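Re: export button greyed out
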Amino acid sequence: MVFHLFSEKLQELIKKKGFLEPTAPQKLGIPEILSGKNVLIISPTGVGKTEACILPLLDKIKNNNEKPIALLYITPLRALNRDLLDRIFWWADNLEMDIDVRHGDTSKKERSEQRENPSHILITTPETLGAILPGKRMREHLKNVKYVIIDEIHELVENKRGVQLSLLLERLERIAGNFQRIALSATVGEPNKVAKFLGNNVKIINADTEKKYEIKIELPKYKGNEVEGRILRIKELINQHNKTLIFTNTRETAEALGSRFKLLEKDFQIDVHHGSLSKNLRIKAENAFKKGELKALIATSSLELGIDIGEVDFVIQYLSPRRVSKLLQRFGRSGHKIGEISKGVIISDKDDLLESCIIAKNANERKIEGIKIHELALDILATQIVGITLDEYEISLEDVFLTIKKAYPYRNMKKEDFISLINFLSEMKLIYVSEDGKRIKRRKKGWKYYYENLSSIPDLKKISVVDVSKNETIGFLDESFVLEHGEIENTFICAGSAWKIIQIEGTKVFVEYIEDIDSAIPAWEGELIPVSFEVAHDVGRLRKFIYKKIETENKNLLKDFLIKNYNLNEHAAKAIIKTILKQKDFVVPDHKTIFIENFKDFIIIHSCFGNNVNNTIGRYIASMLAMTKGESVNVKIDPYRIIIRTFSKIDEIIKIILNANDLRKVIEISLEDSSLFKWNFFQIAKRFGIISPNATIDSINLNKIINQYKDHLVYNETIRTILKEKMDIEKAEEILNQIKRKEIRVVKSNKKISPLGKSGLERLFFDVIKPKRPEKEIFESFKRRLLGTRIRIVCMNCKDYSISIEVKNLEEYPTCPKCNSRLIGIYDYSFKKDPLELLKKKNLTKEEKKEIERLRRSASLMITYGKKYAIVQAGRGIGVETAAKILSKLPKDEESLLKYIYEAEKSYVKYRKFWKL
Amino acid sequence: MILFVKNYPCLILKHKNKRYMIISDLHLGISLELEKKGFFLPSQAENLANKLNRLKKITRAKEIIILGDLKHNIPLALKYEKAEINKFLSKINFEKIILLKGNHDGRIENVIRSEKKIIIPKEKFFVIGKYVLTHGHIKLNKKLLGKNIIIGHIHPFIKMRDKFSFYYEPAWLVYKDEKREIIIMPSFNDLCGATIVNEQELIGPIAKNLDREKINVYLLDGTLLDNLDALWLGE
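Workaround output, generated via the alternate export path:
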């Protein structure tokens, strides 16, 4: 048994604690850790993985009599530290070792105590490690670090916090020399990537095989209100169990559920726990739940991590968990004891039933989403390079370069990109570069910048929307929405009505109710985590399977099959079949079938490719439309649909899809003007020191800043971040190619809206894609101007009729009221003389002769083309010749005539460096 | 004759075989104002000087006339601003620089430390052929008012909207009646604030009270939109 590998003292303690048999992670992990290897342990929570790594390290520290700080224990969440402390403390205390916790809230007194008398073990967060590294005294103690444990590493690998940690570890290594790296992770899709992220020669220990999940999927039956039906069912489930955790996907939903329960039964023992609540409220809820004062706790991701809330015997996921990894973590919170089965229910709605089925099935088969690591993030690197100068005062550029390249996300760093970042930091006065350009040195401004930017988590402010007429808060907007649309007079939809912005003050937007809901933009709030391509694709495949079965099989058999295979309640199975049956009258979109339909000014493209691929294709289509039409387009995506608000025809969309090309370029161009870009730029520019952390959102100034930094590092980093987090260009291109090769078919319908289309329209969160220039509007003003142009017409026959008239008021073929002749000429206004006088004059000058000749020619064109000619010659810089050329193209109606004239006006300035009035 | 440089807030005045480049409203030092709000920018002097030198190559103009507001902060130029102004002046390659003082340029003479030929006319205007050039914040006498006039000062932008979005584009305003024309230039520095000319009144003794119907609005690329009255969105 592995426990025999320990010192006698530790073996005694293990006996005392009552550990008889090592758990899987302990059995597999302990020998590897004792042997000094870098180790990644993958296992669900509650199987003693903390002990698996802590015990061998404590034993080593004890036996080798290592100096403090010997062990750094890094966790992503502060709240985690207190519980861990309790757990580890028992072992450390009995082995006569000290332990300390250090994070942002640690008091000054404690911090100075830690500086004077460091402990063997320090529990901290990535950000706090960043904060203590430059400290002179702390660095003395950090020299002794021999072991680093990273807990819950799956929470870090995919975001910029993790990227920052990878650099921090390399900085630590410059101080402490080589140390043993150990990481703990929940079940992840690509353990190899996580291992590489951790360090070199990492041994992966997969101790996940034991855990079993029993997940039911229910669509509660209801009378009347659907949400109420779900709530009643949740209540029933809570009452059947001792302690239930309920997970929601957003804070808003958590709050809404909580208040619904209170409405239902005032004293129901339930509370809410999420990241926007104060620390006190959260701890209160945790403790109440732990003690059993609460029967249920509604939470968001805030409780996914291993916060100790005692035993949980049941987990409810409210609506689809959207990701397999989420489901595993959330349901892993029940049946915490070794060998117990994790039990729970997904309370689904009609639209995400199939998704819940696929995710639950994939969870049991451990088919988990892949890992996406940010590569070469320059904002994080900027802060860390400044950090290195603070650690070491002065350092050669070559050393810095080699150090950062050791971190996995920067292994492909190019020297020239590195140098341009160094130059930028020097321009910003954050570091000094030596004259020969070979060394960098710390600079005063660097301190402030570094400490302001340790946190790479964007702080999300909520802006309240206040109805001026009632002085009442009607809802909340994301700061990012306000950034894009927060301009006085803009209109948006919130709480089901349209509002006009009257005033913006700090974190409040004052609005006024308006009738016109059509032109308002829906405000999008709290974004949902993306559903992967694989899950959405599998949902499509399942749709197809069910559709085929409906055609060929008995529906009851099919229902029973679904119930058994996907652990559904009967109502859910029936609803699935019913939806597909109804959809069958249109087209059932699946993984190989894209279905496009049209409803009012919405075009709905059903595409089962997940959020990121749909976002990529959706933005591409919207950008192409905005560009060709010259007006803004609204687009919205979900994992199964792309919805575009435009008056374009389905065939135009199909044409864009079939001719899709150069996705990255087109998307990059339109991204620049999007709220997505501005919001990310705002965050990233802060990390580059271009925007101070205290700056308030100000869309006018932000636009100016963006313009100034075009093609700059910060700009490129913004694009890179968005493409990484929100898009999947490679996969989207693959899909578009499959469409071109007809491996995926595209089917359209002009019938009224299908059931799947309708449910896509129910949640209206759109983003605006703008053209570079509002061509359509420019064209509209051109049209107004042209048709409003005043001309003077003259009868060339009787030479006795001449009036001034706006072009638009001219008859199709004007005739002279005096002599009925159609020989009507258009007089040149710049010619100051009265036309009738001119026509009667004898002894004409050369110029006057020319003008009369021009009048004659215009009269003959009027006979042929009538009003059309008058319109054309009103164009700017269009002479008789150009006019004749345009008219000979025989435009079919006035609109296309106007387009020809518009083009002619444009070509007048097109190839010149200069233009004239 | 007047040539507008396509896609730039810049025009060329041709007179007796000479080409004068005319720009307006540089507001060097404006980045200090943004810095107070927490936005940091690279040196404007360098960017704007580079832009001007590129324009010089395109237009082959040898002399430049700046229609005022070279500096930004009032009343005094801050240290950074002084450095910016002198950096800017040293970087631009014109044989002759004429600066017509704007409302932000009080005591600019004390700021400038340049060996170049810089002319700052006391009367704050300058006449070339049929045109009077001035910033636009001072009154002109009757005789001058009867001539064609080119001014800055206003930083005109035009607002457009379509179904889901607003757009703001810098614009040239050209007023024309039987006797004369008045050209109002967009600002050369895009960090400046703006007058939304189809919502807000034009300011300054020359532009104020002009008949909107007689003002044509052009985009930087030379697109003629319409007259200002037809484009009017305000009350």
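DSSP finds 36 helices and 32 strands in chain A. The button fix ships in the next patch.
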